[in-house]
Amino acid sequence: MDTWMRFMSSDGGVVFGRVEGGYLHEYESLDQPVPTGAVLSTRALTPLAPCAPGKIVALWNNFHALAAKLDKPVPAHPLFLLKPAGSVIGSGEPIRRPLSYAGKIVYEGELGIVIGRRCRDASVEEAAESIFGYTLVNDVTAADLLNENPHFPQWCRAKGFDTFCCIGPSIVSGFDWHSARLVTMLDGVERQNYPLADMVFSPAEQVSLISQDLTLEPGDVIACGTSVGVGSIKDGATVTISIEGIGTLSNTLSAVCEIAL
């Protein structure tokens, strides 16, 4: 397995590459993984979200256990929404409560698929080859907005605020998800602990079926959906999401939305 990260350098530039032993071996980009020859100490770099997706495809009802709990039928095709690129933050960055919203904010710990090459109308085999690697996602939701308007469920608004898509800390290529478990902790208390093997659609099946609907580009992320144990985050609380072999994504809900002047 290889671990890939994205950083900001001291001069404000963005660098991407393979991390090993505290050093970043720089590569041209995620879609052009060609080494530049540069080797940088990660101590001199500021971590960012490991990719800059043009879009995040977020699945709903993709785990058998949650479908059973909600008494929902297992879907025949992935059920998904899109989160905007501007919602992405990395590990350690604060989730900002919107100034316009005082309601419940919810965490959802998820496996993230990172696309490595353009993918359209792909077979399952082609889709598997299009996966660059895997990361962690906290699909944050302003839960009270979902059904605020009885005539139109507001999935994109509720999940699309700035900072509402936490991704990181790294991308791991060659990761075997089949026997892995995802664990979500809220202020140190375990809230989710579920097997990834309980997915309705495997990662390759997700990529294949979603590529029938829209073109997936390098760097795009598919959030594979969550299982049981979703809950609310109080202001000041910290959510950590972990998968052994990928790492830990940690973000704290801030009560104040910082506005750039």
UniProtKB/TrEMBL annotation:
One of its GO terms (molecular function) is metal ion binding. It holds the Pfam family FAA_hydrolase. Signal peptide: none annotated. Keywords: Metal-binding. Residues 55-253 form the Fumarylacetoacetase-like C-terminal domain. This is Fumarylacetoacetase-like C-terminal domain-containing protein. The gene is yisK_1.
